[in-house]
Fold these 2 entries.
Entry 1:
Amino acid sequence: MTAALTVAGSVLGLVRDQTVAHLFGAGAESDAFLVAWTVPEIAATVLIEDAMALLMVPAFSAVLARGTGPRPLVRGTLPRLLALLGVLTAGLAAAAPVLVRVLAPGLADPGTAVACTRLTALTVFTFGLAGYVSAALRAQRRFVPPAAIYVAYNAGIVGTLLALHGRYGVRAAAAGVAVGGVLMVLIQLPAFVWGMGRTHREPGAAARPEEEAGGGRDAGAPPPRRTDTLALALVVPVVVFTVGRQAQVLLERFFAAPLPAGAISHLNYAQKIAQLPMVMSLMICTVTFPAVSRALALGDRERARKRVERDLTLAAVVVLLGAAYVVGCAPAIVHVLFQRGEFGPADTTATASVMRVYALGLLGQTMVGALVRPYFSAARPTWYPAVAMGAGLLVTAAGDAATVGPWGAYGIAAGNAAGITVTAVLLLRGIGVHSVAVRARSLAPGLVRIALAATAAAGAGWALTAAVPVALAAAALGALAVPAVFAAVALALSAPELPSLLASVTRKAHP
């Protein structure tokens, strides 16, 4: 169900982007909306996907592992969170003109960007509440309502846009973002209210003698009731890491704003398509994250290590297979998805070229998303992920500044890929010291074999796309040929990961 709803949300996200492209093309008006879109992009990362989940899933998992219900934790944290979100939302709406000038100096239509930003600022409140509820439900192993939030969100945007674009233009898309945020909360609220009355205990947790004697979950773990100082020490590194990760988008928009109109739009559409494989791969880690948190809460580090290593391998297979298809069939994919209305052949060519460059960083994006979860699962403050993200951000900024002149949008995409890859390498090297003792050296050969298979598959897809003139046929044939070549090369290279994963899937499908 999580996979089905994730796919449905991604498909509706494509419909949303297709609708914007069809109605407004890739020009000044769409660029203005995409600058305002920076607010929900950052809010989704901080308040739903990363910071809120990394903080609250372990917190809810810990109280559930001890056998207490979630109500005391909710009473102690939710009112403060709502007050903070309200202040941030009001401040962001008031500061919209300044924000637009900082994010996109030289933008062709700043007035429209300011109006759209004031509407999208409402997502700070709604996304924060939606992310909190999602974390509570995931910790209780209830994944369906959280997986449905992007279905509701994108449906709200598309519906509002179609109903109001004739009167309000691209501002209707920003209003749809606000409506979608409200729907995110409403679709989860019944399950959240029902779950507040439940009490859980992890099997075997009641017999732990150190708990009965007043000890922690494992040696050196903080007591169940943390002080405000410790809570702040846990929050700040997570928030800094998350903001640093999303700052890549801010750098992208900053460097692209002075380029010819449409550059921001080409980058955005390329990124949205290219990141679909990453979304599917990280779905695995989203579902298993509460299991890792509970294993650490119960002191079972060996189980946590095995789960993280398996997640990294499976996520790499999914994202590299998807990246091979994106790189090989990029022009056909963009043509099928977007080339209609105001989005013409030149926009297709530019977007497909940028998308191929973006795809070079997909493995890094996935590794960062998968690795950071165990770093923050152990309920101990650590600044290492934020430092690693800062190093990657410096690489991104330097790369963008050096290449945007000669290469334009392609240089920006290359800087993004290089920066996130550096962060992934640093996180993989440091995880054994700072978190779960993942055996990075033993994982590396398998990742290399999978990457070689993906390279061969991408080459096959590229040749096929060049040989088949009809875009729809090329995209369809590529969807068959790329996985076939990927599997054949992976097996020829004796990659043990692929057959073992296929056998695991078969066993689960036919127990």
Entry 2:
Amino acid sequence: MVVSFTYHFLRWHLAYGYYLLLAFLFDMKHKNKQAPNQYDAFISYNTHDEPWVIRELLPKLEGEQGWRLCLHHRDFEPGKPIVDNITDAIYGSRKTICVISRRYLESEWCSKEIQVASFRLFDEQKDVLILIFLEEIPNSHLSPYYRMRKLLKKRTYLSWPRAGEHTELFWEKLRQALKTEEDHGEDSFLLTVVDRW
């Protein structure tokens, strides 16, 4: 009965604790390496959203703006454990861009990626996480992902649907978010294209 109660009411807390422990262990492992960042950003996305990443995100960020991006289908090392590839990509990049959709929220691997990225955010106290919503997602759908809800209450994020006809402003705000803190100061995280939740 206790096990059933624990699973039913606390399973998301237990899963979060598990991922947080994994992220902590990976962080300890990578703290000693301190290698320069190989990429400007790691793109965390679900494979169902790959067409948007390939058609919209890559041409703008890599083609027009010249950023070096890390994508799992292109840059992960073959034969290496997926979890190691994920953490190496996140810690080997200055920022992590999470492209969030309903499919993203359902994905176990995407969940691992955002957990490791958010742990790095809170551990290093640096602006290393950028959230892009590809679709409007009601608060109720985010309820199991209370860590993400907590992030959304503290940070501004980008929304592709709300960008509407102002896509150039969307890309400019993303470019500003990708800059290092030294480039534009700590207090100008300028993702003001959208409203907060």
